[in-house]
């Protein structure tokens, strides 16, 4: 199969893309961090908290704070959760500065503003000062523009007793791997359904599974 240099570069960018997390109203009417940097291909992941909710993220211009930019993005109004797993994500398309604000009530005027990749001569403090003077706080007409809104699953902890000791995710991983191996026809069909299991048994079954795999 033929890959052009462009394809390779795109793949490389995908590999190195990172997620930049920004908290929205995590205990205060602000974005945290309110200044950060991101590379093209990175994902800005806004985590909405339920403090004084709902809130929004709107892309604005430095010169006209609290107003949508011509190439705006808009999360819509999001209620958030106590843990901030209610998220709005948008992919960074260029290294141009991204000034943004919350369009709820007078949150923009009250300092709920942020920036990604600010130029050296423009700061979030300057944007906040200008925002304070804005006559109105304007949201785009659409309910959502670009990006995607999702409620991320919360972490589920599954307890597994090993020799009567406390559970450990590593042992759970081993047990799952064992289950996979035994599923391929090893003599033992030990269930890993969450019940007590001793360590020697786990490795014994793994060894058996390994032998079975060699014999296939
Ligand atoms: Cu807000």
Automatic annotation (TrEMBL):
One of its GO terms (molecular function) is copper ion binding. SUPFAM superfamilies: Cupredoxins. The keyword Zinc does not apply. Pfam families: Copper-bind. Residues 1-17 form the signal peptide. Residues 19-116 form the Blue (type 1) copper domain. Keywords: Copper, Metal-binding, Signal. This is GPI-anchored cupredoxin. It comes from Hyphodiscus hymeniophilus.
